[in-house]
């Protein structure tokens, strides 16, 4: 997994980088086919916004979260990404199992 962190109006410190990478490890725990993750951290007045674009095989998944604290925004984003990745994984497994050849479905 390639992780790219970008900060807008924010300097990305090593503790923030470590926190984001440790939290995103949870996403790769559920789904191994994560190719690339682009994370943008933004500070706008009193709001901290974090956006993530996760590239998996066959799809790009985008999530964002806004909170008053950057660490809380990171936690919320990872929760959203986790749910979305699990939903994508379930859909891909359903498509794989439903695509059995027709001759094998009804033949008995």
Please give a quick description of this structure.
The protein has 108 residues and is α+β, with helices and mostly antiparallel strands.
Strand content: 25-35%
Q: So what's the overall shape?
A: elongated
Radius of gyration: 18 Å
Q: CATH topology, which one?
A: Double Stranded RNA Binding Domain
The helical percent reads 40-55%
**Number of continuous helical runs:** 3
H/E series: EHEEEHH
Mean pLDDT: 86
Unreliable residue stretches: none
Structural class per helix/strand content? Answer: alpha+beta
Tell me the major beta sheet. 4 strands, mixed
CATH architecture: 2-Layer Sandwich
- For CATH, the homologous superfamily is named as Ribosome hibernation promotion factor-like
CATH structural class: Alpha Beta
N- to C-terminal distance: 45 Å
Strand order of the largest sheet: 1-2-3-4
């Amino acid at each position: 997994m390639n992780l790219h962190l970008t900060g807008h109006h924010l300097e990305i410190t090593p503790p923030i980088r470590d926190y984001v990478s440790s939290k995103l490890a949870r996403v790769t725990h559920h789904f191994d086919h994560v190719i690339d993750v682009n994370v943008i951290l933004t500070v706008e007045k009193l709001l901290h916004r974090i956006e993530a674009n996760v590239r998996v095989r066959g799809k790009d998944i985008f999530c964002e979260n806004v909170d008053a604290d950057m660490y809380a925004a990171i936690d919320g984003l990872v929760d959203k990404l986790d749910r979305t990745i699990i939903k994508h994984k379930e859909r891909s497994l359903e498509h794989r199992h439903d695509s059995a050849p027709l001759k094998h479905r009804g033949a008995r």
